[in-house]
Amino acid sequence: MDNERRDFLKKFLTLSVFTSICPHIALGELVPTEIEKKDDNILQGVYELEIEQYPDLLEDYGSVMIKVYNSKLNYYEEIYVTRVPENIKAEHFSILRNICPHEGQYVLPMHPITKTFTCSGHGSVFNVTGNYQSGPAAADLTNYQYYAWEPGDKYLKILFDFYDKTGITENEQMHIYLKNSHPNPCGDYTNIFYGTDVDSYINYEIFDLQSNSVLKSKKEYKVKGDYSEKINLQNLPNGVYILNLYMNGIRTNSLKINKSKD
Questions:
Q1: What is the pTM of this model?
Q2: Residue whose C-alpha is closest to residue 64's, from 4, 34, 23
Q3: Are the C-beta atoms of 27 and 68 separated by less than 8 Å?
Q4: Who contacts 7 (Cβ-Cβ below 8 Å, separation ≥6)?
Q5: Which CATH fold would you assign to the domain 170-259?
Q6: Is the domain 3-164 a CATH 2.102.10.10 member?
Q7: What is the CA radius of gyration of the chain?
Q8: What confidence tens digit (pLDDT) does each residue in 151-207 have?
Q9: Class of residue 171 by CB neighbours under 10 A (exposed 0-12, middle 13-18, buried 19+)
Q10: If you ran DSSP here, which 8-state letter would residue 142 be given?
Q11: Residue 26's closest CA among 60, 69, 62?
Q12: What are the start-end ranges of the E strands in 166-249?
């Protein structure tokens, strides 16, 4: 990238940050409900966003970022909720995860003039509905589902998938816990803290946001107790990852790791 383009991109991204009306709003804990899908048994959470509390969402292209705490995965989901004109999209909103599908970099708030979202890392551009426009990403932003909404409705009901619950019994989930990793965000190393109240085989596996396995541990027999483990992330690029913890070969807990420090 030449200096002229780099300077232009820097000014463009700076304009996006300081002119977009997009407050960060921390919302409450989701209450998961089990919803049967075609071939999966997915544990989901439904959050009711009260539209009238966010005046920007009453106007076309009004946009806010919200953070919804997912108690099962133990982290905040960050998404953009943007009011989309009906002539652009059949539905009334686009609800997009603020993570670029290319390298896990954060996506900046919608630009007030171009009505596009831009990756903060490499400048990939997405339109107001989250569809890829240009840059190295070559994939769309994650677009969340919501229940039917009509003008005048008080709540916008947004659905979040927690995980595939197939094969996990309630009894097994109660026997193991996983706390947040520390530090997080992290550099080349982070630590996880977990414990079990029964003797069992424990291992973890780390996935990128495209569901590719990038790192996994050996299955080890652990007696009842509390444990900490240092994880080496030196071979992974900066980005956001999901760590799944397994007990006797069954996934029981997950958390998000953000590698962003050199």
A1: 0.59
A2: 23
A3: yes
A4: none
A5: Immunoglobulin-like (2.60.40)
A6: yes
A7: 20
A8: 889 999 998 876 655 544 444 455 777 877 888 889 899 988 888 887 788 889 999
A9: exposed
A10: P
A11: 69
A12: 176-178, 189-196, 200-207, 213-216, 220-222, 225-232, 239-247
104 by Cβ neighbours in 10 Å (0-12 / 13-18 / 19+) ranks as buried
Per-residue pLDDT, 36: 60
For residue 237, say if its preceding peptide bond is cis, omega within 30 degrees of 0.
no
pLDDT in tens, 71-92: 655 567 789 999 999 888 888 9
User: What are the residue ranges spanned by the domains of the chain?
Assistant: 3-164, 170-259
Identify the CA nearest to 237 among candidates 258, 216, 217. Answer: 258
List the structure tokens of 20: 């977009």
Same fold: 3-164 with 170-259: no
Tokens of 40: 């999966």
Q: Coil, helix or strand for 101?
A: coil
What is the four-CA torsion angle of 233, 238, 240, 243, rounded to 10 degrees?
Answer: -10
